[in-house]
Each structure stands twice: as structure tokens, then as C-alpha cells.
Design goal:
It is a single chain. With 992 residues, the protein is mainly alpha-helical. Among the domains are: 156 residues, Nucleotidyltransferases  domain 2 (Four Helix Bundle (Hemerythrin (Met), subunit A), Up-down Bundle), CATH 1.20.120; 235 residues, Beta Polymerase, domain 2; 154 residues, Four Helix Bundle (Hemerythrin (Met), subunit A) (Up-down Bundle). Helices cover 61% and strands 6% of the residues. Helix 41 crosses helix 42. The longest helix is centred in the C-terminal third of the chain and has 31 residues. The N and C termini lie far apart (111 Å). One of its GO terms (biological process) is regulation of glutamine family amino acid metabolic process. Its EC number is 2.7.7.89, 2.7.7.42. This is Bifunctional glutamine synthetase adenylyltransferase/adenylyl-removing enzyme. One of its GO terms (molecular function) is [glutamine synthetase]-adenylyl-L-tyrosine phosphorylase activity.
């Protein structure tokens, strides 16, 4: 029976589920014993497309019962007039309240047959005509009833235009913003009419010198009203304030009974304050007492009724205050706190369904947009729209919000507002509560009301629920991204005056901030902000903050120049300015880097992806050296040839040097971690380049003639490389089976030379010099030797300095087995049984004395030279290595290539006092840090501590001094630390 009832001859075919549907259809003459009447087919199809066919049919049946004489005309119009059919059926299938209105007011359906009112004057004229009688404005209940009917009839017209396309798809679909604006114009006309009635009641003989202006606030001020909204207003009066107050309260009562509630709670002091104040009273209150949220509300203030001149004066007065409100102390934090407080008032059991106040709701969009407006709108009048949608579009086109973010936020906002409209239309009641997620009937009707149609696997309600959650989550994500953007607080802290300086004032301001060449800084600013492009707009928003941030760095002028160079180099990089705009931490850290280091901007233009890491310290420092090395080797291995492999290795090394440098400058890595990371990436580059060179040579020869191993020496061997360090290495080979030593050496030499040349080719990056000068016979000896050749050389010809150099030897690249056998071969040489004898120890001391005398650069200050100076790196390392040569045979912990670990082992073994090794360790770490810092500051390798100027200030800042500290104190501290270490060296190295 159920299946039969849904057959071709059943009302169910048209979406009706009501048991009385057929009865209603027969009464209307649209159904016969054989099924639908032919002349009613278009009507039935229209009903089936409505949000709730049963509701629409019941309402039509009620209209038929109450207006039998007009029914034939309505039936004919429904059959012949597509516009009327779409609008009327759309309204009746969505709104029971408007259905009640049509039942109670026969003939009002004709309003939907053609377009009528679309502007404020038309709405006002229609309402005023309705409340007039014999040319006079009526008062009391007759006026209220006439106003109510006129208002509801005009609301019917707006709803018909809004909903008609759902039923008749060929009708125009109005934009959400157009519907909201029509509802606002209607509300304004109701206020105008209500004020006329109030005047007729309270001052029938005229107002005299009394003036009253009605200022719209909230959604009415923003021209974005719902079908059922409170209309927030503020009253401004002049003259007889008692009469003005009676007019205001009477208007509120009349409009409240006839149309909608009029709420004046946003006035100064809220409900406890005077309903009407003078312009001077408002001005004094806002200047002295107003809180942050009140300025946020005033953003939408707009005169809509009453005395236009007085209303405009009020608007001009509040404009200057609104657009300087962001300068108030804790402004951004206050707005953010207000949003959290509003959200906290939502009952937990309703939070997920709250369209307006809940997480991901309408308030999330409005608060984020308003905060961005108030912060950036001080300098950009394009942002000063009271409309949320218009302001959001302006924020997007102006570059303050990403285009995609603005588009997504607007789409989701309009979706929720449309859902809100349809919910309120149902019974014309004020509600912001999404239906219960388990109420399938309500969800289905609401889904159809906003235009959702079923799919193969899902019905309208299920699709609606998915869409609601998707838009809700998107709004919350973007709200948190924009509303809690750290940059907002920084921009807000820049005064409005500073955002609008003349050229002369700007130069004075820059000079006061500490820019040594303000005219040059102005040229950079003009270059970055000239034109009307989106890029220039974003720069205009960023630069006030950036200039202040750079002013706190050691070199503001150099930082601004670097910022311009980076910006120009990356102007075609789509995400560059977006990251700076959306990630406040990135701007702060970038300013710190650019105003401190010359190396960072040079690397940044060639490795811009590192910029994206600045906002997340965990990502900036999160990769271990082993992970980095593994990734680099894997990437290089995939390259098709030697040139591509070396280029990839260089690129990845550049990325890693910049990443490490940024983390170092920001204080996120200590000096040992920096040295380990730089050494690890150097080793990975060597490994990758060697593998690529071997593959190329094997392809040329048809096989591998020898195994090759690379032995790290010096700082590479100790994993103590700095930013500008060369890679000291030895190359060792072993012939393949059937290959002579000579052929093996020639093969390995060609590979080694290829690696050196490819890596050492000129580059803008820090140098990649592979230095093999520590090999037997130095530069005059062969580049590569066999393992046996090394063994024979060291046994017969090895000198003390070569033995000392081998203390830092470790395998770093190539054949691991060969490398390990080389290390096993040299262990007895560098850790001689019985230790270094007295004569060879004296030779080490003589070498040290000669180095101190001969290699110190002419004119260098020996107290400030990080490598060869007193208490510097060489002092500490020579001392450690002498002890290793003498005692490592009996103290296994001394058999390490690491200087700090060897110092710790000396103290642990009792070979030196802990205080002495602590002093040496402190000096070594300090000299290493200063050497690295000087490289970062100057962009080139230097061993001398800067003795004055901005370079000294920058180095001191990197090492922990504040901007207020005297850099000279850092120099004193450096000299004091190295002087103590030098005294220990004199005692341990020369006297022990």
C-alpha cells in the first residue's frame, strides 16, 4: 500500500507527506480521481521544489478558505505568472509566519507579482502613506496597526525576491548582501515612520528648536540586518532634551510593537545612562570614559533618521575617535578578551549549534574583521566600511588578509548568515540556533530552504550538516589566524600620527629612531610602497612595525636596505609578503636578523624557504644533523649528473647554513650545536659530491679502479666547523683487484680533484674549499696516497706537526672500511705508546712559539684575535693536543677529536685542575662564538673581534648583550676571559 501511495497518481510524488495533502489539492481543484489536474502541473512542480511542500500547500488551502472570491485569480496567476509562482510558493514553503500574514490579509499576495520597492524612499513613502489618514499622521493603536501591516507586506516582497529562485530556477538569485541591504533599508524606513508618528503624538504643534538624530548601530549601521533583528540605535538631541527623550522613547515603543525591537543599550553608560544626550555630552563621554568595546561598536555608527545635520555632526565626531582607538593601551588584548568573554557566555550544550556567538560563528568573523579594520583603517580609508562583507573584501584587496582567506571567510560568513535568515523566516522569530543535529526533518527543510538538493547517497539534511560543520571549522581556523595575529599588537602600537607623517616629519622620526641616514631610509620606503599594487599595500601595513623593530637592532639602516633587497628579490615569490603579514613572529625575527647580519640577507634571497621557518622555532631547530645529512645525501643521489648533484648539494647546504644561522642569531642553538650542525652538513656535501664524482668517473672508465676514503682533519675532524671554515681533508685510496697502485692513485686523484674543483668553484655562498694541505709533504706531495703509502710515510718521514694534526683525523666520506683501517693505522702514531718524549714535546712548544710570532697578522690586537690571540682558539687547542700526545696512550677518554671533550677528559683524569679546564673551555667556546658571530655580522670570515662601531654592537648583541648595554663591556669581558685562559696555557703548555 505504501508503494502504491507513492506511485504516479499519488501526491507523494510531489514531495507531500501530509495525510491530508490530497484533500487540500482536491479542494484547490488541482487533483482529480486520475491524478494531478493538467492545468495545475506547473503549480505542483513548484510546490515540490519548495522547502516544505506540506507547509506551502496548507498555507494555500488556508488562503483559499479565507478568500474564496480572490482564489480563482490567485490560481490563474500561479498557473500563468512564473515570477509570482516562484516567489509565493517559495515564501509559503519556508515561512509559516508570512503564510499567516497572507491568510489574514487577503489580496496581499499581489505584491509578489512584480518588482516594487527597492530603495529607502519607496519604503518610507509606502509606510508613511499607510499611517496617514486624510493627509494627517495617525497616532496610537491605529498607527501601530497600519505600520505593522505595511512593514510586514514589504518584508513579504523582500522574502519573495530572496526565495523565488529556489522554486523557479530561472528567476534571478539575489546576493546575500543585497537581501541584507534591502532589510536594512526597510528598517530605516520603519524608524523614519515611527519617528513621524512619535512627533505627531508628542509634539503635534511642532518641535521648535528641538532636534533629534537617530544613529544606527550594529547590523543596521552595517547595512546587514536579518529578517528578525533588534535594531541598535543611539539618540543625539539638541534643544529641549525632555521632549527629545519623549520622542525617542515613543518611537522605540511604536516601532517595537509594529516591526522590531529598538535597542538603545549601546548608548553611553548603557541602560543606566540618559536615553538622549547632546553632541557635546557624547563627545565628552567618549573622550574620557568610553571603553574599547564601545569604539568597536561605533565603527558601524551611521545616521538614519531624524535631523540629518545633527546626525552627520555626530558621525564626524566619532570617526576621529574610532580611527584612533587602536592606539589605546592594551587595545588589541581588550578586543580579544571581549571575544573570549562573549564566547564563554554560550551554554556548553548549545555551543556547537550557536550560529552567532559560538566558536566558528558569525561573531568570529565580525570580531576579526573589526579588529583588522580598527588597526589598519587608521591609515587606509578604504577599510572604513561598516559592512562586514565590504570590509572583508577591502582587507583582501588591500593585502591585509590573504585573497584566499578573505574569499573563504566571506563564503562561510554568507553561508551562516543565509542559514540564520532561513531559520528566522520560519516563524519570524529572532533565533541563532542551528537545528538539533538529530532532527532530520528540520535539517531537511532547512537544507532545501538554502538551496541544497539531495545527492545519490545523501539527503538535504545530511549535506547541510556536513556543510555547516565545514564552514564552522573554516571560520574558526581563519578567525584564530587573523584575530590572534601577533603583528596586530605591533601595528596598533604605532601611533596614527606616525602612519601619516610628511616627508620632513618622517625623516625626523627616522633620525629619532636611530637611523643614521634617514633620507636613504625614506628612499627605501618609497621604493617599497610606491604604486597602488597589492604588494605596495601590504608593505605599507608592514613598514611602520618593521621600522620600529629595525630601530632596536644594531644596524637599522643596513637592516632596512637588506629588507628592500630581499623584498625586491622575492617580489615574485607568492607567499613572501603573505607570511610576513600573517605571521607576526616572522616579521619580528626577520627584522632582528636583517639588522644584525650581512650574511643572512645574502643567503635569504637564494634560500627564501627558510623564512617560513622563522615563525616556528621548533621547525627552525627541530632537525637533527643526522636527519639533515641523510636528507641531503638522498636528494643529491637522485640528481642525473655531477653538475646537477653538486648544484643540489650547494643549494641544500645554503638552506642549512641559513637555517642554522637564523637559529644561532635568535639564540635557539648553543655554539656546540651550531658547530655540529655546520660540520654535519659539510660532511654530507663531501659525501654526496664524492659519490657523484665516483659515479661519473666509473661511467667513463667502465668500472671502479680503487676505493676512496676521505679523512676529516682540523675543525672538520673535530666537528667544530664555523660558518667560514674550510674543510681540511686527506684522501686515501686502495686499488681494486688487478689494478696497480699507480693506476689506482691516478683514478682516485682525478676523482678528488673533481670534487675540489666542483665544490670550490666561485659562489656567492660561504666558500666550499676542500683543503688537502695537511697531507704528507704538504702542497708538494701527491693529493692521494694508498693506505700503504701513508703507513710507510708516517713510519719513516712523519714529523711531530703531522702527528699532532692526526689527533683530529676521523673518517668522513667514501669507503667506510678503508676509512676505518686508516684510523686504526694512525692510532699508534697519534697516541704513541709511552707518550711523547721530552725532546718531541719541546719541539711542539717551539712550533707554538713560532706560530704565535710569525702568523699573527700585522697590526692585529693580540688580545682580540680569536684564533691566534692570547687565550684564543690556538692557545687552547695546542695545549689540549700536547696533553693528548703525552697521555692519550694511557687515558682512553683523551682519544677524541673534540676539543671540549678532551678538556673534560683532562679534568676527569686528574691531569689538570677542573678550574683550569673550565677556564680553557669557557675561552674556547667564547672565541668560537665570537668568530661565528663576526662572520654572521660582516658576511665574510674574520678572526678579529670588532673593536668599535656597529659591528662590535652586533657581535655583543648576538652574544647576549641588550641594546642598552655598553659594547665596551663586552670587549672587557672577552679580554678578561681569554686573559685567564692564556695564564692557564702559559702554565700548562710551557711549564708543566
Amino acid at each position: 500500500m505504501a508503494e502504491q501511495s507513492r506511485g504516479a497518481g499519488s501526491p507523494a510524488r510531489y514531495g507531500f507527506t501530509d495525510d491530508r495533502a490530497e484533500e487540500h489539492l482536491r479542494a484547490a481543484g488541482w487533483w482529480t480521481d486520475t491524478g494531478p489536474a493538467r492545468e495545475a502541473l506547473d503549480i505542483l512542480v513548484a510546490l515540490s521544489r519548495s522547502a516544505d511542500p506540506d507547509l506551502a500547500l496548507r498555507s494555500l488551502d488556508r488562503i483559499r478558505e479565507t478568500d474564496e472570491q480572490g482564489w480563482p485569480a490567485l490560481t490563474a496567476a500561479l498557473r500563468d505568472n512564473r515570477t509570482l509562482r516562484g516567489r509565493l510558493v517559495g515564501v509559503l514553503g519556508t515561512s509559516s509566519a508570512l503564510g499567516d500574514f497572507l491568510v489574514g490579509h487577503p489580496g496581499e499576495w499581489t505584491r509578489l507579482a512584480a518588482d516594487k520597492c527597492t530603495d529607502a524612499d519607496c519604503y518610507a513613502d509606502t509606510m508613511l502613506d499607510a499611517v496617514r489618514e486624510d493627509g494627517e499622521i495617525r497616532t496610537g493603536a491605529p498607527a501601530e496597526n497600519a505600520l505593522r501591516t505595511a512593514y510586514r507586506g514589504l518584508l513579504l516582497e523582500i522574502a519573495g525576491t530572496d526565495l523565488g529562485h529556489l522554486v523557479e530556477g530561472k528567476l534571478d538569485r539575489p546576493r546575500y548582501a543585497d537581501v541584507a541591504q534591502q532589510l536594512t533599508l526597510l528598517a530605516e524606513a520603519a524608524l523614519v515612520t515611527g519617528l513621524e508618528i512619535a512627533q505627531a503624538e508628542q509634539a503635534p504643534k511642532g518641535l521648535g528648536d528641538t532636534r533629534l538624530a537617530v544613529i544606527a548601530m550594529g547590523k543596521c549601521g552595517g547595512r546587514e540586518l536579518n529578517y528578525v533583528s533588534d535594531v541598535d540605535v543611539i539618540f543625539v538631541g539638541e534643544g529641549d532634551l525632555q521632549l527629545a527623550t519623549r520622542l525617542a522613547s515613543t518611537m522605540m515603543r511604536i516601532v517595537g510593537k509594529a516591526c522590531f525591537e529598538v535597542d538603545a543599550a549601546l548608548r553611553p553608560e548603557g541602560k543606566q545612562g540618559a536615553l538622549v544626550r547632546t553632541l557635546e555630552g557624547h563627545t565628552a563621554y567618549y573622550a574620557k570614559w568610553a571603553r574599547t568595546w564601545e569604539f568597536q561598536a561605533l565603527l558601524k555608527a551611521r545616521p538614519v533618521a531624524g535631523d540629518a545635520d545633527l546626525g552627520n555632526q555626530y558621525a564626524e565626531m566619532v570617526t576621529s575617535m574610532v580611527w584612533s582607538a587602536a592606539e589605546r593601551e592594551n587595545f588589541v588584548a581588550d578586543v580579544q578578551q571581549m571575544r573570549r568573554r562573549v564566547e564563554g557566555h554560550v551554554p556548553s550544550e548549545l555551543a556547537e549549534r550557536e550560529l552567532k556567538l559560538g566558536r566558528g560563528g558569525l561573531r568570529d568573523v565580525e570580531f576579526a574583521v573589526q579588529l583588522l579594520q580598527l588597526v589598519h583603517g587608521r591609515a587606509d580609508p578604504n577599510l572604513r566600511s561598516p559592512s562586514t562583507v565590504e570590509a572583508l573584501a577591502a582587507l583582501g584587496s588591500g593585502g591585509y588578509v590573504g585573497r584566499s582567506d578573505a574569499a573563504e571567510l566571506e563564503m562561510s560568513y554568507e553561508f551562516l548568515r543565509t542559514v540564520e535568515h532561513r531559520l528566522q523566516l520560519r516563524r519570524l522569530r529572532r533565533t541563532h540556533l542551528f537545528p538539533d543535529f538529530n532532527d532530520s526533518d528540520e535539517l531537511r527543510v532547512l537544507g532545501r530552504a538554502i538551496g541544497i538538493r539531495p545527492e545519490m547517497a545523501r539527503g538535504e539534511g545530511e549535506i547541510l550538516l556536513v556543510e555547516f560543520r565545514r564552514h564552522n571549522q573554516r571560520i574558526r581556523r581563519l578567525h584564530e589566524k587573523l584575530f590572534y595575529r601577533p603583528l596586530l599588537q605591533s601595528v596598533a602600537s604605532v601611533s596614527t600620527e606616525d602612519l601619516r607623517l610628511t616627508t620632513k616629519q618622517a625623516a625626523q622620526r627616522l633620525a629619532a629612531l636611530g637611523y643614521a641616514a634617514p633620507d636613504g631610509a625614506l628612499q627605501h620606503i618609497r621604493a617599497l610602497t610606491s604604486g597602488v599594487s597589492r604588494r605596495a599595500a601590504i608593505q605599507k601595513a608592514l613598514l611602520p612595525v618593521l621600522l620600529d623593530l629595525l630601530a632596536d637592532t644594531p644596524d637599522p639602516d643596513g637592516g632596512l636596505l637588506a629588507y628592500r633587497k630581499v623584498s625586491e628579490a622575492l617580489e615574485e615569490t607568492p607567499w613572501y609578503l603573505r607570511v610576513l603579514r600573517d605571521e607576526g613572529a616572522v616579521v619580528e625575527r626577520l627584522a632582528s636578523l636583517l639588522g644584525t647580519s650581512k650574511l643572512v640577507p645574502d643567503l635569504l634571497v637564494r634560500a627564501p624557504e627558510v623564512l617560513q621557518l622563522l615563525g616556528d622555532p621548533a621547525r627552525l631547530t627541530g632537525r637533527t644533523p643526522a636527519e639533515v645529512a641523510k636528507s641531503l645525501r638522498a636528494t643529491v643521489r637522485r640528481q642525473p649528473g655531477l653538475n646537477a648533484a653538486v648544484a643540489a648539494a650547494r643549494s641544500l647546504r645554503r638552506h642549512e647554513i641559513l637555517r642554522v644561522a637564523a637559529a644561532d642569531l635568535l639564540g635557539l642553538l648553543d655554539v656546540r650545536e651550531v658547530c655540529e650542525a655546520l660540520s654535519s652538513v659539510w660532511v654530507a656535501v663531501l659525501q654526496s659530491a664524492l659519490s657523484a664524482a665516483i659515479r661519473k668517473r666509473c661511467a667513463e672508465l667502465g668500472g671502479e679502479a680503487a676505493k676512496i676514503a676521505v679523512i676529516g682533519m682540523g675543525r672538520l675532524g673535530g666537528a667544530e666547523l664555523g660558518y667560514g671554515s674550510d674543510a681540511d681533508v686527506l684522501f686515501v685510496c686502495e686499488p681494486a683487484e688487478g689494478v696497480s697502485d699507480g693506476d689506482a692513485v691516478r683514478y682516485a686523484s682525478s676523482v678528488a680533484e673533481t670534487v675540489r674543483k666542483m665544490l670550490g668553484a666561485p659562489s656567492a655562498d660561504p666558500p666550499l674549499q676542500v683543503d688537502a694541505d695537511l697531507r704528507p709533504e704538504g702542497r708538494g706531495g701527491p693529493l692521494v696516497r694508498t693506505l700503504d703509502s701513508y703507513r710507510a710515510y708516517y713510519a719513516r718521514w712523519g714529523e711531530v706537526w703531522e702527528t699532532q694534526a692526526l689527533l683530529r683525523a676521523r673518517f668522513v666520506a667514501g669507503d667506510a672500511d678503508l676509512g676505518e683501517r686508516f684510523i686504526e693505522m694512525i692510532d699508534p702514531i697519534r697516541y704513541p705508546d709511552g707518550g711523547l718524549d721530552a725532546s718531541r714535546a719541546r719541539e711542539v712548544r717551539r712550533m707554538k712559539a713560532r706560530v704565535d710570532t710569525e702568523r699573527m697578522p700585522r697590526g692585529a690586537d693580540p688580545t682580540l684575535h680569536t684564533k691566534l690571540g692570547r687565550g684564543g682558539l690556538a692557545d687552547v687547542e695546542w695545549t689540549v693536543q700536547l696533553f693528548q700526545l703525552r697521555h692519550a696512550f694511557e687515558v682512553p677518554d683523551l682519544r677524541t677529536t673534540s676539543t671540549p671533550r678532551a678538556l673534560a677528559a683532562l679534568a676527569e683524569a686528574g691531569l689538570a685542575e677542573p678550574e683550569d679546564t673550565a677556564s680553557l673551555t669557557e675561552a674556547w667556546l667564547l672565541a668560537t662564538r665570537v668568530r661565528n658571530a663576526a662572520m654572521l655580522v660582516r658576511g665574510k670570515a674574520v678572526d678579529q673581534v670588532p673593536s668599535s662601531g656597529r659591528d662590535l654592537a652586533a657581535v655583543a648583541r648576538i652574544l647576549g648583550q641588550s641594546a642598552d648595554d655598553d659594547p665596551g663591556e663586552f670587549l672587557d669581558s672577552y679580554r678578561r676571559t681569554t686573559r685567564r685562559a692564556h695564564a692557564v696555557v702559559e702554565r700548562l703548555f710551557y711549564e708543566a
